[in-house]
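#structure-requests
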Amino acid sequence: MATNGKSLQPIIVKRVKKGGHGAHGGAWKIAYADFVTAMMAFFLLMWLLGSTTEGDRKGIAEYFNQPLKVMLFGGPGSGGATSILQGGGDDLTKSVGEVASGDIEQKVREIGAQLARAEMIRQDKLRIATLRDKLEGILKANPQLADLQNQIRMEMVQDGLYIQIVDEQNRPMFDAGSALLRPHMREILRAIAQVLREVDNRVELAGHTDASPYGSGERAYSNWELSADRANATRRELVAAGLPEGKLARVVGMADKRLLLPDSPNDPRNRRISILVLTREAEERMLQSLEADPQAAGGGAAPPAVSPAVPALPSAEGLARPGGRPNP
C-alpha cells in the first residue's frame, strides 16, 4: 500500500515474556536462611558445652530436675560456679561468676545435724524436768523428808537442774566444823541418788560455807578445805547410795565465794551443798573448757548458769585438818 507515492511499513511491537523461577520459586532462600540459623545455634551450643565444666553441666541438669531444691540450697545449678560466661549467682557485681554456695548434700547433712542436735536438747530438757517432778514426788511421799523440804531448793537453769541443800540454824547438814554428815542429810542424799541413777546426765557437786573464818586463817585449814571436804563427803554418800562414780563430772569446794545471801554473809543458809544435773550441752562445754585448761580438771568453777566462773581450786580430798575454831 502506498500513500502519495510512499509505501507504509508495518509497526512491529515485541513483548518480552518474563520467565518464572521454576516449580519452587524463591522459597529456597527462606529454607537456606533457616538452615544457616540452625547451624549457628548448633555450633553455639557445641561451643557452650565445650567451654562449660562438668560440675556446671551437672548443676544445670540438677536445676531442671529439682529447681526448688537448687534455689533453696544453692550449688552449681544456681549460677554460682566460675565459668567463661560472666555474671550469675546471687552477687551480680562479680565479673566471672559468684563462688558456689556449697555442695547440696553437705548442706543437707549440716541441716540434719542441726535438727538432730535441737531434738537432743529438747529431749534433754524434758528429761530433766521429769527428773525434778519425780524428785519432788519422792520428797513429799517420804514422811522423814517432808519436814526437810524447806531446806531443799530446786530450779531449772540454763545448764540443767540446780539442787541446793541448805543449812538451818537448828538443823545443820554437817557436824560443826567437820564434814561428818547428819542422819537427815544422808536421807536426803539417798533419795536424790535414787533418782539421779535413772538418768544418763552427769552431775557436778559443790560445797559452800558462810563467811565466818575458820581456824587460824588462810595458811591453815580454812573454808576452802572445809567446803571441799563436805563436797567429797556428799560424793561418797551418793556413790554409796547407788550413783555410779562415772556420772560425777566435777566435785569442788567454793568456800564463801558464792554466797546464797550476799547481804547476810554469816547467815547459816549460806552453808549448803549444790548439785547441778548437767544437760548434754553444758557437759560438752565443761569438757571443752577442761581440755583447753587441763590444770582446771582438779578444781572447779561455779555452775555456769548460776554465777560466773571463778579460778580453779585444788582438791582438798585427804588434806590433814589442823586445829582451830570450827565453822559450823
